[in-house]
Amino acid sequence: MKRFILSATLAAFTALPALAGGSISIEIAPSNTDEANAIRAGLAIYSIAQALEGDANILQNGNGNGAGIGQFGDGNFGVIQQEGDGHNATLAQNGDNNAFGVFQFGEGTDAAVAQSGGGTGLLFQFGF
Predict the structure, then answer these.
(1) How would you write the pLDDT of the chain (128 residues) with one tens digit per residue?
(2) pTM as predicted
(3) Partners of residue 127 on adjacent β-strands
(4) How far is CA 81 from the centre of its chain?
(5) Burial, 110: exposed, middle or buried (Cβ in 10 Å; 0-12, 13-18, 19+)?
(6) Which of 72, 38, 37, 75 is nearest to 55 (CA)?
(7) Straight-line distance from the first to the last Cα atom of the chain, in angstroms, rounded to the nearest whole number
(8) Sequence-ordered list of residues with C-beta below 8 angstroms from that of 63, at least 6 positions apart, any chain
(9) CA distances for 82 relative to 42, 79, 117, angstroms
(10) 93 with 75: CB under 8 angstroms?
(11) SS (H, E, C) 60-118
């Protein structure tokens, strides 16, 4: 029975016309210290692979993108990477030991992230 419902739902989605101007967002927030450390390690490896220096980095490839990172505290790391056109992102980190990465692809996505005291996470957005 469940298989039939899933198939009917998928068939309904494939029958819909394509819509312009949409986006899909995936946010990853750790639920324990081990997961937080894994995200921090992943962001560190990413920064090494991208040859990034410092605690705040913005990489943009496209047109009409806007981004900003503000940090107050020690041990913070933030990165925003935008690939495509018309993206906007801000990352505010207050307190110590925050780590967050915003990755936007496609076109026309918006993100506003605020962290306070030891927050960790990732946000992936795909706009179309």
Answers:
(1) 433 333 333 333 444 445 567 899 999 999 999 999 999 999 999 988 888 878 999 999 999 999 999 999 999 999 999 999 999 999 999 999 999 999 999 999 999 999 998 999 999 999 99
(2) 0.81
(3) 23, 106
(4) 8
(5) middle
(6) 75
(7) 34
(8) 85, 86
(9) 18, 10, 26
(10) no
(11) EECCCCEEEEEEECCCCEEEEEEEEECCEEEEEEECCCCEEEEEEEEECCEEEEEEECC
- Closest to 58 in 3D by CA, of 108, 120, 104: 104
Please state whether beta strands 23-28 and 120-127 pair in parallel, antiparallel, or not at all (unpaired): antiparallel
Query: Which residue reads 């047109």 in tokens?
Result: 63
Tokens standing for residue 82? 């935008």
The owner of tokens 């992943």 is 42
What's the CA gap between 40 and 37, in Å, rounded? 5
Helix (H, G, I), strand (E, B) or coil at 18: coil
For residues 11, 12, 18 and 22, what is the CA-based torsion angle, rounded to 10 degrees?
Answer: -110
